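User: For my dataset I need records formatted as: sequence, then structure tokens, nothing else. Please produce one.
Assistant:
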Amino acid sequence: MVEGPDGCGKSTLTTALVERLRAVGQDVIQAREPGGTPVAEAARSIVLDPNLDVSTIAELYLYLAARADHVAQVIEPALEAGKYVVCDRFELSTFAYQIAGRGLPADEVRAANALATGGLKPDLTVIIDLPPRVSRARLESAGKPLDRLDEAGEVLHRAVDEVFRSETGGSIVHVDGTLDQEGVLEEAWGYVSGIK
């Protein structure tokens, strides 16, 4: 899984890793959250719509509904078929945004997420570290329309960034998001290919 704050280059890295894995003969699918199925895409359109006032609890359950369907319809079947899955966001985003950013209770969010995923855990999570001000500048320079989360404010984004930067564990690795695209890819590929 590829994680990190908005504007850090997750989608770019996900695509590049998928291309490289295919180039070395791996059977791989590219995924994103929320999204990947009609149900998940519908949830995505609601939860990111800047014109909707979505409560924090409803936001959580929209994300988890999207994840549950995505896991059941896309990720689990791919894994059962022996394929690699490279996904742009997964459960760490929920922990960062909904627990740290929105202030929802950690135990309840983690339990609900475990139900949505059936306990599925990533083999590797690549976190792209990038300061929030740099992420925001990238979003603005790209001319990307801001969604509900982009507009959530600096306090939320600092809390989210802190979760991503401080996350550790056996399946968690960090890459320097201030590098150029090729540099980020090479760092991440070192982990994905088992070099590091």
